[in-house]
């Protein structure tokens, strides 16, 4: 893979476009800033999935999430095919749908033979409605309601037990519905630190997720005493947006040791789920491992640990989310007001912000952007991209390198597929954007733009307040 570069003084939006260095090279989507199909067309406009981004905004409005189907499918295929190549045992890739859960995204990953990881009744319901098979669904969560557990059991979904309350509730549900087969996995906290944001580290001991490792014998004994629960596997997750490789190698050794301990309790464990966490490229300086490097490393570590512990190879599961959907999507905005603060900065405002992308204000996340209708214009200005919300902290990008712009230009923020739509809100009563799926020059709406009517759909006005006079 090589970037299309220009001299430093003449950098343009085209610098973010990449092309394969050979006709046969498979680009790893998580290492790209733009979707795999991105190009500058003959009108000097950004094109994704064969669709002109400016035309998409004219047709569907802005802000607009634009999802490239080819990029999402390629990422799914790489995970699936590479595990088949590097891991001699059985494997199953699960899409971590909390990154973006809607009918169309679930349907695509299902068509690519991926299973799905859900963390709520709503995500489970959506995956079921999209037609995914329940035997490939896994319900997570540190505080599952009884209703969510009942829904999972009734559907045939596997429940990942996170704590004692999960186990006790599942035993009670099993007794109420004796004809139901309840498959569970057990989630443990491995005590592995990663260099990532504090809020997205889930593998260290001080975490709300999973049983502590010193409880492992007690948990195994409980499950052994309740054969009404069928424990098929063990789960651990060490965090998100990880570039390091050693933590995943360490995790393999820890989990295989747990697997060996489980054998003493005669539990029918055949699966190990190592979670996800592979990072993606948000800026030019980000250098995550490729999907192939990650899969190869994880597979080798599990194989080595099993050989060392003389344990049969388990079915290996993983849960990529961000690395699948993140690079597949961009968000298109229309530029509006400008404000110059002499000697300090220039603000360019867009018609969205923290309601469609809360990650900058929540995690101090950094993004890059291009002006979709000026891809060859030299990047001559450093500006601050401000959202439209009534918050001083509603800043999309603090230092964006852009060409000279004017109101009405289309700004495209890259790599916005993961946790943008899924964490979107109606702050300031702003309707959430539409999302379109693009492929071979065709754009299909997968999420309709909310209306003002939608905003008050669930409001209820007491009769005594219905008349203001």
TrEMBL record:
The keyword Lyase applies. Residues 77-325 form the Orn/DAP/Arg decarboxylase 2 N-terminal domain. It is an enzyme of class 4 (lyase). It catalyses: meso-2,6-diaminopimelate + H(+) = L-lysine + CO2. The keyword Lyase applies. Substrate binds at residues 322, 359, 363, 391, 419. Pyridoxal 5'-phosphate binds at residues 277, 319-322, 419. Pathway: Amino-acid biosynthesis; L-lysine biosynthesis via DAP pathway; L-lysine from DL-2,6-diaminopimelate: step 1/1. Residues 1-30 are annotated as: Disordered. Keywords: Amino-acid biosynthesis, Decarboxylase, Lyase, Lysine biosynthesis, Pyridoxal phosphate. Its EC number is 4.1.1.20. It comes from the Bacteria. Residues 1-23 have a biased composition (Polar residues). PROSITE patterns: ODR_DC_2_2 (PS00879). One of its GO terms (molecular function) is diaminopimelate decarboxylase activity. It holds the Pfam family Orn_Arg_deC_N. The modification N6-(pyridoxal phosphate)lysine is found at residue 98. Its cofactor is pyridoxal 5'-phosphate. CDD domains: PLPDE_III_DapDC. PANTHER family: DIAMINOPIMELATE DECARBOXYLASE (PTHR43727), GROUP IV DECARBOXYLASE (PTHR43727:SF2). Belongs to the Orn/Lys/Arg decarboxylase class-II family. LysA subfamily. Homodimer. Specifically catalyzes the decarboxylation of meso-diaminopimelate (meso-DAP) to L-lysine. HAMAP family: LysA. This is Diaminopimelate decarboxylase.
């Amino acid at each position: 893979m090589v970037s299309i570069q220009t001299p430093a003084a003449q950098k343009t939006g085209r610098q973010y476009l990449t092309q394969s260095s050979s006709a046969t090279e498979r680009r790893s989507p998580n290492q790209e800033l733009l979707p795999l199909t991105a190009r500058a067309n003959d009108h000097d406009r950004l094109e994704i999935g064969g669709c002109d981004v400016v035309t998409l905004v004219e047709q569907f409005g802005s802000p607009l999430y634009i999802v490239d189907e080819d990029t999402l499918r390629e990422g799914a295929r790489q995970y699936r095919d590479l595990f088949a190549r590097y891991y001699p045992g059985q494997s199953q890739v699960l899409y971590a749908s909390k990154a973006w859960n809607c009918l169309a995204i679930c349907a695509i990953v299902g068509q690519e033979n991926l299973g799905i990881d859900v963390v709520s009744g709503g995500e489970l319901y959506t995956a079921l409605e999209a037609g995914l098979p329940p035997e490939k669904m896994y319900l997570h969560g540190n505080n599952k309601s009884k209703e969510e557990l009942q829904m999972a059991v009734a559907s045939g979904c596997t429940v990942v037990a996170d704590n004692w309350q999960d186990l006790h509730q599942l035993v009670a549900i099993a007794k109420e519905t004796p004809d139901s087969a309840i498959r569970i996995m057990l989630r443990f906290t491995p005590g592995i630190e990663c260099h990532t944001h504090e809020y997205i580290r889930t593998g260290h001991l001080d975490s709300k997720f999973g049983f502590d490792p010193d409880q492992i014998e007690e948990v195994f004994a409980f499950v052994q005493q309740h054969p009404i629960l069928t424990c098929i596997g063990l789960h651990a997750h060490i965090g998100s947006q990880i570039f390091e490789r050693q933590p995943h190698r360490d995790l393999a050794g820890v989990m295989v040791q747990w697997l060996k301990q489980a054998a003493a309790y005669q539990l029918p464990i055949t699966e190990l789920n190592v979670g996800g966490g592979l990072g993606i490229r948000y800026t030019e300086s980000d250098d995550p491992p490729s999907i192939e490097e990650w899969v190869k490393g994880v597979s080798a570590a599990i194989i080595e640990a099993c050989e060392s512990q003389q344990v049969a190879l388990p079915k290996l599961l993983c849960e990529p989310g961000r690395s699948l959907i993140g690079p597949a999507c961009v968000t298109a905005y229309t530029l509006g007001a400008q404000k110059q603060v002499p000697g300090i900065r220039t603000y360019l405002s867009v018609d969205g912000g923290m309601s469609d992308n809360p990650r900058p204000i929540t995690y101090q996340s950094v993004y890059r952007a291009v002006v979709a209708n000026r891809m060859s214009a030299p990047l001559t200005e450093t500006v601050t991209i401000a959202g439209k919300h009534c918050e001083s902290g509603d800043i999309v990008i603090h230092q964006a390198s852009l060409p000279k712009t004017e109101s009405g230009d289309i700004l495209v923020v890259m790599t916005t597929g993961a946790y943008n739509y899924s964490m979107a809100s109606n702050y300031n009563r702003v309707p959430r954007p539409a999302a379109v799926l693009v492929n071979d020059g065709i754009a299909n709406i997968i999420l309709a733009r909310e209306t003002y009517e939608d905003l008050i759909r669930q409001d209820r006005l007491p009769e005594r307040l219905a008349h203001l006079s």
